[in-house]
Amino acid sequence: MILATSYPFLEVFWTMLIFFAFVVWIWILITVLADIFRRHDTSGFAKVLWIIFIIVLPYFGVFVYLIAEHKGMTERAIKQQEAAKSQFDQYVQSVAVQSDPTEQIAKAKELLDRGAITQAEFEQMKQKALATA
């Protein structure tokens, strides 16, 4: 039990807090570096200057970048998300099975024959299938 007395609970808590703060710092640093490389509105020289600034004065450089470019970072992140969503939507539409109106009408007729739907519901489903064709 000598281990428990040599490393008290508050020190364990403090170590965990420092570790998680370091993880958050690394996350912010990677986000800023990714944003610098993602930018298309600045020259390569400006990107190099930001990276040197971040390397020489890491905390100060990252915080200055976040203050100076916060709107641009947000806009670039939104554009990237919209592009990813658009690409995903196009993919889903390309692989989705397009239902044939005759298949929809046949399925509705089968439901009508089984008594699962009424004649009025069948007509409504038929009109809907023909409208999408």
Structure notes:
The protein is mostly helical and about 130 residues long. It is built from six helices and no strands. It has helices at about 1-5, 10-40, 45-55, 60-95, 100-115, 120-130. The mean pLDDT is about 90.
* Sheet with most strands: none
Poorly predicted runs of 5 or more residues: none
Number of helices: 6
Q: Using the CA coordinates, give the radius of gyration.
A: 30 Å
Helix content: over 70%
Task: Please give the alpha-carbon distance between the first and last residues.
Answer: 77 Å
Number of strands: 0
Shape: elongated
Order of helices and strands: HHHHHH
Class of secondary structure makeup:
mainly alpha
Estimate what percentage of residues fall within beta strands.
Answer: under 5%
Question: What does the average pLDDT come to?
Answer: 88
Keywords:
86% helix; 6 helices; 133 residues; mainly alpha
Put the structure in a nutshell.
Helices cover 86% and strands 0% of the residues. It has helices at 2-6, 9-38, 44-56, 58-95, 101-114, 119-132.
What secondary-structure arrangement, pairings included, does this model have?
Elements: H1 2-6, H2 9-38, H3 44-56, H4 58-95, H5 101-114, H6 119-132
Helix pairs in contact: 2-4, 3-4, 5-6
